[in-house]
Each structure stands twice: as C-alpha cells, then as structure tokens.
C-alpha cells in the first residue's frame, strides 16, 4: 500500500511538472492576438532558430513568405519578430508610417549601459539627437559647396604629390589614407596637414 502511494505521488509530481512545463512552453511561444501568421513550432528560448538552421536562412525566409504572405511573424529566441517583404509593404511601413515604425527594440542591458541616450536610441530621444546632429552638420557646410570645395582642394594636392614623384615608386595606400584624414581634419579643425608631416 505504501509503495502504491509512493508511485501515485511520483506520477502526480511528474504530471504536475509536465503540465507546468507545457504551460511555460505555451506562454513563451504563443503568438499574441493580432500578430501576423507564421510557423507554429517554436522552442522556448530558441524560438524558430532551429528551423532556420535546417535550411539556408534566406531560402527559409523565402519559403515562409510563399507560405504566409508578405507579412509574417516568428520567434528569434524569445523575441517575437514581424518580417516585412516586398516593395509595397516596406514602403507602406517605412515611408507612409515612418513615425510608427521608427522605434527600435529596447534591450534592458543597452538601456542600462547607455542610460537610454546612446546611438541605439529611438523615438523622442532619437529625434532630438538627429536634430542636433543635422544642425551641427549644416553649420559645418552640409548641403552647401563648402565640403565639395575642401575635397577638391585635397584632390589637387593628391595629384600634385603623385606628379612630383616623376614615375618613382609611391605608396598610394599611405597617400590615400593621409588624403582622407586631411579631408576630415580640414572639416573638423579647419586645418589640413602636409603629406610629409602626416608620414611622421
């Protein structure tokens, strides 16, 4: 009798464990109401990554597109992702509804590390950062011929150094790197450096 009770307790514990695991699985991979259709078999923590490993990912995405249409959803890990395909769908989302789709996924670790003010921001913070960046770039001459003039000056200097070599071997890699650096320096600091001083 004691053995039977022990077996029943073990079976009850196993059944309860299986039920709890099944519920955890169901809640971790079930698609929320209103989410686009997509592949059904998702593994907790991995999502549909196992299915993507069986085939080349672009081929797998193309197969899902044929099966579910231009808009479908799947789990990448534990994150539900909506996939958009086709020119019309992408234009509708990213051009006609740009404000709605401009947000980026929030990763708690990144938010903590950057205090929600890093380059991965979106929404209002991103718009403020973009406005300040554009104001600074406009002040530096973006949209005007100032940048083009500085680049042309640097090209003339580049050609002059090549012509002065008179057919002798010349390290164009170093010269090109110095020329690009000079473009940046002249824009940021208002000064360019001679190629000979850049070599030092």
Automatic annotation (TrEMBL):
InterPro entries associated with the record: Cyt_P450, Cyt_P450_E_grp-I, Cyt_P450_sf, Cytochrome_P450_fam2
Transmembrane segments annotated in the record for this chain: 7-27
GO MF, one annotated term: steroid hydroxylase activity
GO biological process: organic acid metabolic process; xenobiotic metabolic process
Listed Gene3D superfamilies: Cytochrome P450
Record's keyword annotation contains Phosphoprotein: no
Pfam families, alphabetized: p450
Protein name according to UniProt: Uncharacterized protein
Source species: Pomacea canaliculata (Golden apple snail)
Organism taxonomic ancestry: Eukaryota, Metazoa, Spiralia, Lophotrochozoa, Mollusca
């Amino acid at each position: 009798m004691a053995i039977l009770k022990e077996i029943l307790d073990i079976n009850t514990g196993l059944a309860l464990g299986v039920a709890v695991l099944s519920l955890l699985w169901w809640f971790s991979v079930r698609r929320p109401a209103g989410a686009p259709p997509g592949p059904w078999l998702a593994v907790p923590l991995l999502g549909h990554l196992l299915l993507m490993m069986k085939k080349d990912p672009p081929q797998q995405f193309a197969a899902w597109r044929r099966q579910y249409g231009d808009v479908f959803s799947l789990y990448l890990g534990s994150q539900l992702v909506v996939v958009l395909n086709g020119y019309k769908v992408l234009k509708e989302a990213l051009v006609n509804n740009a404000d709605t789709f401009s947000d980026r996924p929030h990763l708690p670790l990144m938010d903590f590390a950057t205090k929600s003010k890093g380059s991965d921001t979106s929404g209002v913070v991103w718009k403020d950062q973009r406005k300040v960046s554009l104001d600074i770039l406009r002040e530096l001459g973006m949209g005007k011929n100032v940048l083009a003039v500085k680049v042309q000056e640097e090209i003339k200097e580049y050609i002059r150094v090549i012509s002065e070599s008179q057919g002798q071997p010349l390290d164009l890699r170093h010269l090109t790197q110095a020329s690009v650096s000079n473009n940046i320096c002249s824009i940021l600091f208002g000064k360019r450096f001679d190629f000979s001083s850049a070599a030092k």
